[in-house]
Amino acid sequence: MTCNALTCLPFALLLLASPVLAGDLQVHLDGIRVQTGTVRLALVDGPAGWEGKAPPVQAQALTPSGDSAQAVFKNLPAGEYAVLVTHDENGNGQLDTNVLGMPIEGYGFSNNPRVQRKPTFEEARVQVPADGSAINISLR
Amino acid sequence: MDRRRFLRSLLSGATTAVIGATALRSLPAMAGDAAAFAEARAQHPWLTGWRSVTSETLGPSTVALQGTLPAGMAGTLYRNGPAWTERNGFRYDHWFDGDGMVHGWHFNGDGTLSHRARMVATPKFTREQKAGRFLYPAAGTRVPDMQMVRNNDDANAANTSVVMINGRLFALCEAGSAFEVDPDDLQTLGPVTWRQDLATVPFSAHPLVERDGTLWNFGSLSLMGGTGLLVWKIGVDGQLRSASIVETPFMGYLHAFAMTDDHLVFMLMPFNYKAKGEAFFERLQFTPDQPCRIAVVPKAAPDTARWFEAPFAAAYHFGDAYERNGRIVMRTVRHDDINRARSPMHEAMAGDAAHAVNSDATLMELHLDLRTGKAHWEDTGIHGIEFPLFDIRSTRTRGARLYAPLMQGDTSAPYFNAVAGFDVERNRRQVWRYGRDILAEEHVFVPRPGSQRADDGWLVGTLLDSATQRSGIAVLDAGRIEDGPVAQAWLPYAVPLGFHGTFAARE
Question: Is the peptide bond before B60 cis (omega within 30 degrees of 0)?
């Protein structure tokens, strides 16, 4: 069928109408140091989620294979988000820390803030536009 | 300013660090520039002591031992020091920054000596080798485009000392964990976690060993932006006996400590952080208007402390401590120039031979009166020493004999060229001067097997001959230092100067 303004526009509008203003956030991870355990990603949309006072918008888990990995958060409305990544290297279900609270397993944050402490939501946040985005997170 | 040098450092990406370094002092050459250091070393051969290594391993090489090894003396001197200091044209400008290289000087017992050395394969060294540039925060140099660390062990250069515990060898650095290395081939076995919840907690480069082999150490939590000291106690079997925290209500720096029969003595130097984003020793600003705070920790209750205050003094190393008549006395190597103390041999690291001077240090005694709670300093009159050591069998009711390198007579390098045994209380010393062109390092005391009497044994120390560009080792009778080495060996190459070592006697 020939596509012209009469025939295609309705289809185009139809396409725009469905998953409405929501895109995917592709997350590329690098700096995975060991191939054991589970890498967990939590996507939050505000400080409450960031501080663990509200559940994440979405969560992903993957088994590492190589020093990089990919994850996708699908169908996100445009807005501000942040991603917290933890690598549970020994598979005990948590991010291990020492007696001083220092992490001894891997972790990372969206926006890779250059701070040697847990960043704030504002420091880690990324804008996800309507048609989605791709970000890179370097694990420490 | 030399335009070619400026362009070269721009291309190497070292500019930010170089500008930061030059802001601290004015220098004819660009600080932190490998090529500038190489040119300076060609003019001033003693700068080999601060040269970077470029190979992960050295040796093994076996050479003839001159003289005769004393009967009963057998084993290996292990040493550690900051050896890898340059990458991609960029050079660290602080002596404490280089990655650690462990050396084994093995007395074969057949008239020969073997030397081998190997870089400690820390996560830092391994990743930076792969990346071809420095990545992680250094103790004294600002590193451009620095990577974030998982924890303090990512920045651990494992470069300061080595200790042997129950047949296992550990490379130490106050930044974090001990790293275990194989005593024979010096391969790195990995960071040591004494207990799971204590992973990465600092394990200082100056543990102290009791006569029964029990080992005490500390970890400074100020280095991690907090306060407090973790006190480690490790049994002769290498198992953790206790880990306790002594609260310290302020940020205080310490590099080492001393102990009496019953107490551990920690002297903390108060400091502020000067500015954000710079390396620790650049940010470190001692506050000499504030007193040093000294914690006397009972070995029987190592999570408690009795605190003393004394006028400020900047010190890395201590000799022995003893307790007599209700008073604890701690021998302290006080650096007389507080600013220089933040970066010893700073000019040598930069290749600025004209301005390089040895750290000026005075052996002081800190007196802690257990009855009155007061402390005061006394000057021993001994000047110009560092790296003091002593026989741990020394009676701890009076001061031990101290062994330390010093400068004697004419020297071509602004560095130690002699070694001495000091009877501090009687103000007597026995000295052996190696020569004008020899740089002398820490000398370890080795007890004669089967002997009971303190100071019955030998000194073993490493040397760098700047005229021949060779490194070597000397053995002296600790009771006859003034007679010079009884045995000596020279390698066919030179290695950079290091810091501290230990002698592992062979049964």
Answer: yes
Q: Which of A87, A98, A105 to mutate to test the interface with B (most CBs of B within 10 A)?
A: A98
Q: Is residue A114 within 8 angstroms of chain B, CB to CB?
A: yes
Residues 76-105 of A with CB under 8 A from B: 96, 98-100, 102-104
Whether residue B279 lies within 8 A of chain A, CB to CB, comes out as no
Cβ pairs bridging A and B (under 8 Å): 37
Q: Which residue of B has its CA nearest to A33?
A: B123
Quote the pLDDT of residue B27: 33
Backbone φ, ψ for residue B286 (5° rounding) = -60, 150
- A116–B148: do the CB atoms touch at under 8 Å? yes
In whole angstroms, give the CA distance from residue A87 to residue B129: 24
Q: How confident is the model at residue B55 (pLDDT cuts 50, 70, 90)?
A: very high
With bands split at pLDDT 50, 70 and 90, how would you rate the model's confidence at B64? Answer: very high
What is the topology classification, in CATH, of domain B3-505?
Neuraminidase (2.120.10)
Predicted confidence (pLDDT) per residue in B330-388, tens digit? 999 999 999 899 899 999 999 999 999 998 899 999 999 999 999 999 999 999 999 99
Please name the residue that has the structure tokens 């709670």. B373
Q: Would you call A99 and B224 a contact, using CB atoms and an 8 Å cutoff?
A: no
Q: Which of residues 109-138 of B touch A (CB under 8 A)?
A: none
Q: How many helices and strands (H and E) does chain B possess?
A: 7, 33
Containing B250, the helix (H) or strand (E) segment is: none
ipTM, 2 decimals? 0.85
Residue identified by tokens 């130490």 is B172
Closest Cα of chain B to A114: distance in Å? 7
CB contact at 8 A, B492 and B471: no
- When the pLDDT of each residue in chain B is averaged and rounded to a whole number, the result is 92
Confidence of residue B250 (pLDDT cuts 50, 70, 90): confident
Displacement of CA B71 from its chain's centroid (Å):
30
Please check the confidence at residue B285 and state whether its pLDDT lies above 90. no
Q: Which residue of B has its CA nearest to A95?
A: B150
Task: Express each pLDDT in B455-468 by its tens digit.
Answer: 999 999 999 999 99
| Chain A interface, best mutation among B16, B126, B150, by max A CB count within 10 A | B150
Judging contacts by C-beta atoms under 8 Å, the chain B residues touching residue A104 are 150-151, 199-200
Whether residues B151 and A99 touch (CB distance < 8 A) is answered with no
Lateral strand order in the sheet of B361-369:
B314-324, B327-335, B361-369, B375-383
List of domains in chain A: 22-138 (2.60.40)
The answer, for B507 touching chain A at a CB cutoff of 8 Å, is no
What's the per-residue H, E or C state across A43-71? EECCHHHHCCCCCCCEEEEECCCCCEEEE
The token pair that represents B216 in the structure block: 């005490």
pLDDT, mean of residues B7-22 = 31
For chain B, domain boundaries: 3-505
